[in-house]
């Protein structure tokens, strides 16, 4: 199993993501955002958290124009798996790989704390190790995590079971309490909480580790 983790100027969770992926058996290769192609043989591309390009314009808007994002879109178009965490989720919406937008938090404050989440979909390769409806605890760290989309998109996400995680106590104003969604083929996940920050007991929890274990399990089964 091999994963590429894209590094943008201002990424700050790329190493943490690499550690979490290695824990479950992935070989991890860092990929600089100026590359125009991805390394051969990747099973997964990770877009990490951080403040790409200083969060200027909108979070993720400049990163979405980096050369590597064309290659990531082509990879997803071929059915590749892509995981975008926090700033990575923002980049996925800015590239159009996931619908909707992450707006400024409702109370216009940066929020950094563990939050309770409800698992909404256990069908995806990212969530199969969780129970449907299970409450888990994973940290958030963002100022632009307020998920927004038009009514039709929200109805489609809900109707197609694509809401992977919701907030049990909505911290940021996200519509439908959305914390994470998957693409229509289930292979692209964007989420604002940081599972890589809950992947080791020393970090205060392991609820995030099961997301990486789900992925490892689905590749092992393939
Ligand atoms: N931890 C992160 O990835 C931060 C995400 C983003 N730049 C925000 O603050 O909303």
UniProtKB/TrEMBL annotation:
<dbReference type="GO" id="GO:0006189">
    <property type="term" value="P:'de novo' IMP biosynthetic process"/>
</dbReference>
<keyword id="KW-0378">Hydrolase</keyword>
<keyword id="KW-0658">Purine biosynthesis</keyword>
<keyword id="KW-0067">ATP-binding</keyword>
<comment type="pathway">
    <text>Purine metabolism; IMP biosynthesis via de novo pathway; 5-amino-1-(5-phospho-D-ribosyl)imidazole from N(2)-formyl-N(1)-(5-phospho-D-ribosyl)glycinamide: step 1/2.</text>
</comment>
<feature type="active site" description="Nucleophile">
    <location>
        <position position="86"/>
    </location>
</feature>
<dbReference type="GO" id="GO:0005737">
    <property type="term" value="C:cytoplasm"/>
</dbReference>
<keyword id="KW-0547">Nucleotide-binding</keyword>
<dbReference type="GO" id="GO:0004359">
    <property type="term" value="F:glutaminase activity"/>
</dbReference>
<keyword id="KW-0436">Ligase</keyword>
<comment type="function">
    <text>Part of the phosphoribosylformylglycinamidine synthase complex involved in the purines biosynthetic pathway. Catalyzes the ATP-dependent conversion of formylglycinamide ribonucleotide (FGAR) and glutamine to yield formylglycinamidine ribonucleotide (FGAM) and glutamate. The FGAM synthase complex is composed of three subunits. PurQ produces an ammonia molecule by converting glutamine to glutamate. PurL transfers the ammonia molecule to FGAR to form FGAM in an ATP-dependent manner.</text>
</comment>
<dbReference type="GO" id="GO:0005524">
    <property type="term" value="F:ATP binding"/>
</dbReference>
<comment type="subunit">
    <text>Part of the FGAM synthase complex composed of 1 PurL, 1 PurQ and 2 PurS subunits.</text>
</comment>
<keyword id="KW-0315">Glutamine amidotransferase</keyword>
<dbReference type="GO" id="GO:0004642">
    <property type="term" value="F:phosphoribosylformylglycinamidine synthase activity"/>
</dbReference>
<keyword id="KW-0963">Cytoplasm</keyword>
<protein>
    <recommendedName>
        <fullName>Phosphoribosylformylglycinamidine synthase subunit PurQ</fullName>
        <ecNumber>6.3.5.3</ecNumber>
        <ecNumber>3.5.1.2</ecNumber>
    </recommendedName>
</protein>
<dbReference type="InterPro" id="IPR029062">
    <property type="entry name" value="Class_I_gatase-like"/>
</dbReference>
<feature type="active site">
    <location>
        <position position="194"/>
    </location>
</feature>
<feature type="active site">
    <location>
        <position position="196"/>
    </location>
</feature>
<dbReference type="InterPro" id="IPR010075">
    <property type="entry name" value="PRibForGlyAmidine_synth_PurQ"/>
</dbReference>
<dbReference type="Pfam" id="PF13507">
    <property type="entry name" value="GATase_5"/>
</dbReference>
């Amino acid at each position: 199993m091999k994963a590429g983790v894209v590094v943008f100027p201002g990424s700050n969770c790329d190493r943490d993501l690499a550690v979490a992926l290695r824990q479950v058996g992935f070989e991890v290769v860092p990929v600089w955002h100026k590359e125009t192609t991805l390394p051969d043989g990747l099973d997964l591309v990770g877009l990490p958290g951080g403040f790409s390009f200083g969060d200027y314009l909108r979070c993720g808007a400049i990163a979405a124009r980096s050369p590597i994002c064309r290659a990531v879109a082509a990879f997803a178009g071929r059915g590749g798996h892509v995981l975008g965490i926090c700033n990575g989720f923002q980049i996925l919406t800015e590239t159009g790989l996931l619908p909707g937008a992450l707006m400024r938090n409702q109370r216009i404050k940066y929020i950094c704390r563990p939050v309770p989440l409800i698992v909404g979909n256990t069908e995806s390769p990212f969530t199969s190790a969780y129970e449907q409806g299970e409450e888990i605890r994973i940290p958030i760290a963002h100022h632009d995590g307020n998920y927004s989309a038009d009514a039709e998109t929200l109805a489609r996400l809900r109707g197609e079971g694509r809401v992977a995680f919701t907030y049990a106590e909505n911290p940021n104003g996200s519509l439908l309490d959305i914390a994470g969604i998957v693409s229509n083929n289930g292979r692209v996940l964007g989420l604002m909480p940081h599972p890589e920050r809950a992947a080791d007991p020393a970090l205060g929890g392991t609820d995030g580790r099961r997301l990486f274990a789900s992925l490892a399990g689905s590749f092992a089964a393939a």
